[in-house]
Specification:
Elements lengths: L2 H20 L4 H25 L7 H20 L1 H23 L7 H21 L3 H23 L12 H8 L1 H22 L12
Helix pairs in contact: 1-2, 1-6, 2-3, 2-4, 3-4, 4-5, 4-7, 6-7, 6-8, 7-8
Length: 211
């Protein structure tokens, strides 16, 4: 296992576990971290699509990934609803994309990507319309955390290459074995139960813009 896989795997597991257990309670801290995670993957993936390089295969892709990750993280920290949109949209996108690959559509095909974008947009709009109630934030952080956790484990086990993450976390998991995706969904359900029981009287107060 190279250092790149070790680093990505450990980070994904750490973020995933935190989101699963404390996604709602620590949303103000975890959402900017998730924003960096999403921006990093999106930046590296964007470079891959434009120049045909492997996902995180060059120093440039790492630099672009880190820069875009920092931009997403800062925006998520400064503006609560941007953080929420990034979270909901990324989860919707990866779930839609992953489900279409499960049905046999090409990971890079227009249908899989299009459905992913559509579901991501629906999730993002739903976040605004509903005002992000407790249940919605718990469910989304649980799903995001479970997928990140399983993806990180698979990277450390050598069953998912870092390059595969460029096709989306859910797609990378499904490409390995659909059973892993079912496990991720099962962990998400467990996370929802744990979070709802641990929330108690705590009520998340979305902060005003920090700028």
């Amino acid at each position: 296992m190279d250092f790149q896989a070790l680093l990505i795997g450990i980070i994904a597991i750490a973020i995933g576990a935190a989101m699963m257990v404390l996604g709602y309670r620590l949303a103000l801290i975890l959402l900017p971290i998730w924003g960096f995670f999403v921006g990093f993957i999106f930046g590296a993936q964007m470079l891959q699509e434009f120049f045909g390089d492997g996902f995180l295969a060059t120093t440039t892709s790492w630099v672009v990934g880190v820069i875009l990750g920092l931009v997403f993280a800062v925006l998520s920290y400064l503006f609560w609803y941007i953080a929420v949109v990034i979270l909901f949209a990324s989860v919707g996108y990866w779930l839609g994309w992953g489900f279409m690959t499960l049905l046999g559509f090409s990971e890079t095909g227009l249908i899989a990507v299009g459905i992913g974008l559509l579901l991501g947009a629906i999730f993002a709009v739903a976040a605004f319309v509903t005002g992000v109630p407790l249940a919605a934030l718990v469910v989304i952080t649980a799903i995001a955390g479970a997928h990140a956790l399983i993806a990180g484990i698979l990277v450390l086990l050598g069953q998912v290459a870092v390059a595969d993450l460029g096709d989306g976390i859910a797609s990378a998991i499904i490409a390995t074995n659909a059973g892993w995706w079912l496990l991720a969904l099962g962990l998400a359900v467990m996370s929802i139960i744990v979070q709802l029981k641990s929330v108690g009287e705590y009520v998340l107060e979305p902060p005003a813009a920090r700028i």
